[in-house]
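Q: Got a minute? One more chain.
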Amino acid sequence: MKRICVFCGSTKGDREEYPQAATEFGALLATHGIGLVYGGASVGLMGSVADAVLQAGGDVTGVIPRSLVDKEIAHPGLTQMHIVDTMHERKALMASLSDGFVALPGGIGTLEELFEMWAWAQLGMHDKPCVLLNVAGYYNQLIGFLDEVAAAQFLKQQNRDMLIIASTPAEVIDTCLTCQVSAV
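A: Always. Here it is, folded:
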């Protein structure tokens, strides 16, 4: 695994565990020689994970739409920054540069990005792991809902299982290094 794409908030949220997990995860990426691909911002959890990778001597690639360079405050110190025209281009480039996808706490953009990558896996468009880092139970209700969707037979259980749930940054790394994904 060369690079992991991280989706997460452009704010830090209301609990200290969120930026702590982002920082811990970033440091672990660098320690394992895994590069970070992310949305390119210097703020929020996005900035926390990028700064941690950089501080640990790792490689960070940002991908940001031109329209968000000022709004999300593009990170000035990345290894590589791609400025694209649209959100569609952002997601496509992030996907092509990455060997797996991880969502830390975030809002609707984070969920939309992760769900698109998960849907692509379900459709057989890639075989890269999709992992939800459930920091301090942040995603508990979402996980419960997804289990209900599978129970109601709107999602095959095999496809539900493609979204891997992890509770610690170390568990995410272990999962990504050993995961085999198969579309159904």
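A: Strands lie at 3-7, 35-38, 60-65, 80-84, 101-103, 130-133, 163-166.
Q: Perfect, thanks.
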